[in-house]
Structures are given as C-alpha cells and as structure tokens.
Specification:
The complex is a heterodimer. By secondary structure, chain A is mainly α. In chain A, 44% of the residues lie in helices and 9% in strands. The longest helix of chain A has 23 residues, at 2-24. By secondary structure, chain B is mostly helical. The chains are: A mainly alpha, B mainly alpha.
Chain lengths: 169, 195
C-alpha cells in the first residue's frame, strides 16, 4: 500500500529528527559563563554611563603634557625634518660640502695652493632707505657668471665641483 | 486546516522576529538589555559549541568567547545583514574555526559517536528515546564529513531555520534546503538499513 509506505516513511523521518534532537540535547552550560558575561555587561554599562564621557575627557586632559598643545607636534615635525635631512644628505651628499671661506687657500688638482677672491663684498649703499626699510648695510652680490678681475693662470680653467671637498680640478 | 495552522505558525514567527528585532535594537541602545538576548541564546550557542569542540570545558570557553565578541560587535550589527540568530551563529562559527586553528594539535572537533556526550538530557523527548537508537544516530553522524555535520548542528543544536542557516553559511536558501533534505534522506536510509 503506497499510503502505508508513505506513512511509514514519515514516521521514520520524524523518528530520525527526534533522535537527532536527542543527540544534540545537552545540559545547560556551566554557571561560570553567566558570571563572565554578566560582569562584562556590567563593565560596559558602567563605562557607557552618563558621566563616562566627562571622565574620559578628564583623563585625556590629565595625560596631556603641560604647555601648549602645539609643542609636541612642532617637536615631532622638527625631528622628522632632521631625519629627512640626514637621509637626503647621506644619499646625495651634503650641499655644504665643497664650500669654502672666501680668501682662504684651496688646493688645486695639481697640488698648488690658490686663494679665491671674495665673491661677496660689502659695498656702500647708494640706495636711500625709505622710512619703512631698516637702514642696514647693504650687501651686493656679485653674479657668479661675471669674470673675475685678475684671474691667475691656474684659475683660468677652474670649475667648481660641489661634491669634491676643497679640490678644484 | 494545515494552511491555517501554517499561517498561525508564520504569524507567530513574524511576531517573534519583530519582538527579537526590538530586543536587539534595545540592547544596542542599552547594553544592559543584552542579558535578555544572552539568556535566550546561551543554551543554543553552547550546544552548537559542543559540536565543534572536544570537551565541555572547550565548549564553555567557546560559548563565553562568542558572547563577548557579540557584545563588542553589537553596535555594528545591522538587521539588513540578516536576522540576529544568523549573525550570532556566524560569530560562533568563526570563533570555532579560530579555536580549531589554535588547537590544531589537539582533537577539537567533536565527532558524535566517538566522543561520549553527557548522559543527562534536559530535553524530555530524549528521555523516552531508546539509548540504542541515539547511539546508532551518533554513529551515523560520526561517519559524515564536517560540513554535513555542521549543517545538522546548525539545524538541530543551534535550532536555526533554513534561511538562517543559509545566512550563516553564505549559501542560497534553496541550496541549503535541498542539501539538508538530501542529507536527512541519506541518514534515514542508513538508519533504516541499520535497523
């Protein structure tokens, strides 16, 4: 009988589901879980209380160093700039290399010592200072492309190499 | 008659779902109300955890971890992602996978039939079912691969609906329904053959 078979199958299916539920049925979990979860909830409730925001703000204020709040940022920026300079100088060389004091002797590639004339010379100012300008000594810059007044023969083919320290060749 | 009963059941489920959505919203507003959700899902999560762990202690630890994670993640929960049970058991599933990964050297995945489960059952149905039949079903479950065992655990230990299981496993409702139906049929055939 098909109807009987169907009923038997249904019963068997229901029986299987009943057995499955029985397999997965377990006693209640241990009470320690309840305690842990409830204490966590209590903590969250306390931290989310009406005064929590003010307390957090007070703690932040107390942890800040005295003085301007700008200072730590400025110090940090200076430190970063110094680090960047150090890395740059290491990689491509210092821009201060190869500089010399005007008038001091410099050794050429042939070994002879020459003295460079001053590129910067103080000249008396012919400019009349306006009331808004400070009346200080004016310094005129001599352009580098102008020929030197009396170039010695050893300096005729002189060129500057920024990367070589004090050596002209 | 059956249609009207189905309608009543659907209505009740709808009411329960609405009530639960309100509860979840309230718990998001005030975490103190999470305790209600915890009480509602504690046993189900523990039962599911027990199917993914080797002993009761690991299951208890896993259950605790699931709810702690849920408390942390509750502000990010949105009903648009799916029903709350699916979200919660998604956390449980991930936590169980993490635990398994951490304890790979140990036998952590419970295989029903080989690992003895506690003999005391709160479920009154279990008291009337013969222990031999339960042992047979355990043996059948132990022969299944972990994915199929997990499907049954989500259905009968976690008591999730098929759409909720689909949301947890990331499969379609139709595929989940078909997979579960085939699995039960296969188990039933094996059970009948064994009997």
């Amino acid at each position: 009988m098909p109807g009987h078979d169907h009923l038997a199958a249904e019963l068997s299916h229901a029986q299987l589901v009943t057995h499955l539920r029985a397999v997965y049925a377990l006693p209640r979990p241990p009470a320690r879980i309840d305690a842990a979860i409830r204490s966590t909830i209590d903590l969250q409730v306390r931290s989310a209380g009406p005064n929590a925001h003010a307390l957090v703000e007070q703690a932040v204020q107390a942890s800040r160093p005295r003085g301007s709040a700008l200072w730590p940022n400025a110090a940090y920026a200076l430190a970063v700039a110094a680090l960047l300079c150090a890395v740059t100088f290491t990689l491509i060389g210092s821009p201060f290399r190869g500089t010399f004091v005007p008038g001091s002797p410099i050794q050429t590639a042939t070994g002879s010592m020459v003295t460079m004339p001053a590129l910067v010379q103080a000249t008396p100012s012919t400019h009349t200072a306006t009331p808004t300008e400070p009346t200080s000594t004016k310094v005129a810059m001599v352009p580098l492309h102008q020929p030197l007044k009396t170039p010695p023969p050893s300096q005729a083919r002189m060129s500057f190499r920024p990367t070589s320290v004090g050596v002209i060749g | 008659m059956i249609a009207s009963l189905a309608g009543v059941v659907a209505d009740r489920r709808g009411v329960a779902a609405d009530e639960e959505a309100c509860l979840v919203d309230a718990a998001r507003e005030s975490i103190a109300l999470f305790d209600v959700l915890y009480q509602r899902y504690r046993d189900r999560v523990y039962r599911y955890a027990r199917t993914r762990t080797a002993d009761d202690e690991d299951a208890a630890d896993l259950t605790q971890q699931v709810f702690l994670r849920a408390i942390d993640a509750l502000p990010q929960y949105s009903a648009r992602r799916g029903p709350f049970p699916a979200w919660l058991f998604g956390i449980a599933r991930n936590a169980a996978t993490d635990l398994l990964r951490r304890q790979r050297h140990r036998q952590t995945e419970s295989d029903f039939g080989l690992v003895a489960l506690p003999g005391q059952f709160d479920d009154p149905i279990a008291r009337v079912v013969r222990s031999e039949a339960i042992r047979d079903v355990r043996r059948l479950l132990a022969s299944l691969d972990p994915a199929k065992r997990e499907l049954l655990a989500l259905r009968y230990a976690a008591e999730l609906t098929i759409p909720e299981i689909a949301a947890v496993t990331g499969k379609s409702v139709a595929a989940t329904s078909k997979q579960l139906s085939r699995l039960l049929q296969k188990l039933q055939e094996q059970y009948d053959a064994g009997a």
